[in-house]
Amino acid sequence: MRWTRKDLLDLQSLTVEEITTVLETARAFKAVGERVIKKVPALRGRTVVNLFIEPSTRTRISFELAAQRLSADIINFTAEASSLKKGETLKDTARNLEALNADFIVIRHSAAGAPHFLARVLEVHVVNAGDGAHEHPTQGLLDIFTMLEKKGRIAGLKVTILGDILYSRVARSNIWGLQKLGAQVTLCGPPTLVPRSFEGLGCRVTADLNAAIESADVINLLRIQHERQRQTMFPGLGEYTSLFGINQARLAATKPDVLIMHPGPINRGVEVDSDVADGPRSVILEQVTNGLAIRMAALYLINGGKSPQELAAETARGAS
Amino acid sequence: MPRVNEPSRVLLDAGSIAQAVQRMAREIAARNPPGSDLVLVGIQTGGEQLARQLAHQLAALWGGAVPVGQLDISMHRDDLDQRLAPKVYPTAIPFDIADKTVVLVDDVLFSGRTTRAALDALNDLGRPRRIQLAVLIDRGHRELPIDADFVGATIETAAADRVDVQWGGDPGAAKVVLEKPAGA
To answer: How far is CA B145 from the centre of its chain?
Structure first.
């Protein structure tokens, strides 16, 4: 199928075919990263702006490298050093960037829906690099890509997402993408962080760790996000670790070929022990490699995409 | 005689294609001495099948297997800002092309832009000793100074025509079809 979207905002609105297209395209871009010359001219002459209103290191660097490997120019714009501190609105900031002839804006923002807002008011291509607790589509796609690469399928796969679901955009993007592709998703963690309302999305919700991991094919661990927790949602990190932390003893009770995943950064000794994070079942660093391929694929695909209005106009011209 | 006002007609049938492929293989063998470091690289997706068939013929002529790879050129196209992103197929060249004679293989040679993109893509993979171009159909209308070394058939076409090489499931089903644009 042909990719027509101008932006990549979330996995909720993507079709199965669109998700599959990104995954297939990423496979080819992963191969580019394994060559001596890791660069292709697909976005030559294009400008990508990383607009990170919320701190991030790995996602920003991953997008930066992805843009460079596609031969685009890239500038980084972070909230600490920006006119947003002086009271400029997000819309004005973004329109100024557009006036510099930027072609892509990669945005991370603490407010859910900020990328969708920019996509509506700007003509440039917009990529959501994480908006509040809403979605982080490239992370969801790279997680699914990694599972597909390791397990050969997504349909029927039992995936357990463990930890801080309530505040996690990674969890939401995983849930949307995995369920569209036919995986069975189980959410597990302290009841305060894993609300029953997620059952409405078709997930199994449990606070029983053993039930959640014993038959799982994949355990995707989420970071406990101290910075997002405005109130104390569980008694303490020590108690969280003793109830939900993945250590060797708990790993012994899982399937021998279970995958351990984590979007990073890891709180070692909190949600996962070092010997598990660095152990043979962990694919945490492969996720980082695959993230680069997914982001190259996303930029490549939306570069050719158009707004619904432009597409409608073209279809009308083609029919006349 | 070809008739005008016909929306589509078969230019080559399976027998003619097989003959053309055999002749191209003989020409490649004549140009390149046996034992020369020759590899075939088919351009995705049209050139892949032809590259395999040429490799099969060359193996028979030379008595040894000839390496075959496939190259995707989507990321090197010069029109990516004017179209929907083309589907990217895998590039699979499981050998080193450095210092080899690379025969680049495509089904149809038209504007020459695909060939230009392929030359750039190959350049990223290594520095071949030389590159030769083999195409089943040369349909004219070049937009770049590019010519083929080995041609199965040269066909006169109008610029708006479509030339479609259909390999089909089995060798007997292959054909080359010329389609006139609707309303022409």
So the answer is: 17
Give the best residue of B87, B93, B116, B120 to mutate against chain A (max A CB count within 10 A).
B87
- The answer on pLDDT for A274 being more than 80 is yes
At CB < 8 Å, which residues of chain B contact A? 72, 74-77, 80-81, 83-91, 120-121, 124-126
A138-284 and A16-136+288-308 share a CATH fold? yes
Give the 3-state secondary structure of residue A108: strand
Domain A138-284: which topology?
Rossmann fold (3.40.50)
| Per-residue pLDDT, A229 | 58
With beta carbons less than 8 A apart as the criterion, state whether B142 and B114 touch. Answer: no
What does DSSP assign to residue A280? T
Instruction: Give φ, ψ of A229 to 5 degrees.
Output: -85, 105
Paired sense of beta strands B68-71 and B8-12, if any: unpaired
Pick the CATH number of A16-136+288-308 from 2.40.50.140, 3.90.930.1, 2.40.50.40, 3.40.50.1370: 3.40.50.1370
Dig out the tokens for B51 from the structure.
């590259």
- In Å, how far are A60, A172, B36 from B129, measured between CA atoms? 40, 52, 11
Substitution target from B81, B89, B97, B123 for chain A, most A beta carbons within 10 A: B81
Task: Report the pLDDT value the prediction gives residue A320, as an integer from 0 to 100.
Answer: 45
CB B40 within 8 A of CB B51: yes
Topology, domain B9-79+87-179: Rossmann fold (3.40.50)
pTM score: 0.92
| Nearest-5° Cα angle at A200, A199 to A205 | 5
Contact A9, A138 (CB under 8 A): no
pLDDT at A227: 64
